[in-house]
Fold this protein.
Amino acid sequence: MHPIGKFCLSLERPKLLTAMKLLPIIAGFALALYLPAAAQSAETPREADRGNVQLKLGNGSVVSGNVVYVSPDGRIVELRTASGSQPVWFGDIESVRRGKEDARWRKRPDPWRFRERYDPAWKDPLRWEFGFYGDYGFGVGRNGLDRYEVGLNLRYGLNQYLFVGAGVGINSIMEVNRIANSIFASEVNTTGCAVFANLRGYFRNRGIRPFADLRIGYNLPTSTYGDNQSRRFSDEGVLLRLSAGITAIDRSDIAYSFAVGYHMHSVELTELNKDSFRRMSGSVALQFAVTFRW
C-alpha cells in the first residue's frame, strides 16, 4: 500500500465513535445555554439591589430609594423610600448613582437607558435578531486548517435569554495541502456554503451581555478539489461550532458582538487507490457580528 494510504489508515476512526465523543460536548454546551433562561425567574440579591438609587434633582435635593416603577414614556419614576412611595418627574433629575455613598454621580441618561439600568422589572421586549457576521479560524491540531466565513443568521427569542434560529454562510478552507501530511503537492483553497441551526443563550438581559453560542450544520461544496495525481479533497460534511462572547446594544437596537470559539468541520480525503477517509478539521475562530433587533 502507498505510504500515504497507510498514514491515512492510521488516522481513521469510525464515524459512530466520533459522533459518540461529540454528544457529551454538545449536551454540556446546550445545558450551559439553558441555565441563563432557567435562572431568570429567580431574583438574586444583586438584581434586587439594582433599583436602589439616589437621584439628584434640579433644586439640589437628593432622593434615595428603590425604583419600583418607571412609566412607559419615561416621564415618571416611582421610588420606595423610607417614608413611603414617592413619584419623581424624570425631567427634574439631573444626575443619578447607585445607592452607595462612594458611588460616582452620573449624568441622567435618556429614559430608555434609565429603565434598562435601574428598573428591576425591566424586560427586553425585543425577540427577533437578524445579523451579518464574519470570522476567521486558525487551524489547530494535526488536521487543522485555516478557514474564513461570512454570512447571515436569523434568531427568535423564546424568552429574554434563550434564542434559536438558523443561518447560511459562504466559507473557504485555506491551503488544504497542509492536511494529512501534505497529501496535496500544491496549495488549494476551497469554497463552500454552510447551512446551520443556531442556539444562543445570553447570561444578562441588559448592558454588556455575555453569551454562549452553539451551531450545528452542514457544508455544501461548490466543487471537489484534486491534484494532478487524482487525489481529491472535499469540504462537504458536518459542521459544529462552540463559542462564547459578549454583545453590546446601542439605543437604536443594533447589537455589536465579538466571540471566540472552536470550530469542527468534517472533510473527506480520497487517495490514489480511491480509498476515502473522513477527517475532523479543527480551528480556533474569531468572529465579529452586527445584528439588528426588533
Residues 15-38 form the longest helix (24 residues). The chain has two domains: 3-40+125-293, 45-118. Confidence is low (pLDDT under 50) at residues 1-17, 41-48. Helices lie at 3-11, 15-38, 45-49, 111-118.
